[in-house]
Design brief:
- With 193 residues, this protein is α/β, with parallel strands linked by helices.
- The protein contains seven helices and nine strands.
- It has two domains: 75 residues, TusA-like domain (Translation Initiation Factor IF3); 107 residues, DsrEFH-like (Hypothetical Protein Ychn, Chain: A, 3-Layer(aba) Sandwich), CATH 3.40.1260.10.
- The protein has a five-stranded parallel beta sheet. A four-stranded mixed beta sheet has the order 1-2-4-3, covered by helices on one side.
- About 4% of the residues have low confidence.
Length: 193
């Protein structure tokens, strides 16, 4: 089965892939994408659905080949602990309005102190918040420490692309709106900064 998503922006490539899998239940699927964010998102989605994934670049596009492995999902599945899942949505590179320099310092202090929060499960960066995850950000070491402690960091691919920062991202997984909506549904508590 082939799903051609060239020319489609986030989250359409993942949604078309999801629709094809739910409708056809293929043992093998090839998804054609034309941008890095779509590639990363489709690869992650197929992997989460029990497919072994490989990629192949051809003529300005990327073919993502997924082969379903019956036991892949079960083998990697581990029941989650009953700990509360706290999700933090960061949609700006500063906190508050008024003084931009103060807002940037407050955001630095906030992220540097997040390691003290119990139950922190995932952080999603959107809009200008994605600037905190790219080359030159003073917060990369703190974010790396959080990621190494098990906190998942998702960075909006559409936002990175909008700011021309997709290739400068240094931390986290490039994500899409479907992953963000799913994260919001799975979280026990959402904090918006």
């Amino acid at each position: 089965m082939i799903v051609d998503t060239r020319g489609l922006s986030c989250p359409a490539p993942v949604l078309k892939t999801k629709e094809a899998i739910e409708k056809e239940r293929p043992r093998e699927i090839t998804v054609i994408v034309d941008n890095e964010a779509a590639k990363q998102n489709v690869v992650r989605f197929l992997s989460s659905q029990g497919f072994s994934v490989s990629t192949k670049e051809e003529e300005g596009a990327v073919k993502i080949i997924g082969i379903f492995e019956d036991k892949a999902c079960l083998a990697s599945f581990k029941p989650e602990e009953e700990e509360k899942k706290i999700l933090i949505m960061i949609t700006a590179d500063r906190i508050g309005h008024g003084d931009d320099e103060l807002g940037k310092k407050l955001m630095e202090n906030f992220i540097n102190t997040l390691k003290e929060m119990e139950g922190l499960w995932r952080i999603i960066f959107m809009n200008s918040g994605v600037k905190l995850t790219v080359e030159g950000s003073p917060l990369l070491s703190s974010l790396k420490e959080l990621e190494e402690s098990g906190v998942q960091i998702f960075v909006c691919g559409t936002c990175l692309d909008h700011f021309g920062l997709l290739k400068k991202k240094k931390i986290g997984e490039t994500t899409n709106m479907l992953d963000i909506i799913t994260s919001l549904q799975l979280a026990d508590k959402v904090i918006h900064v």
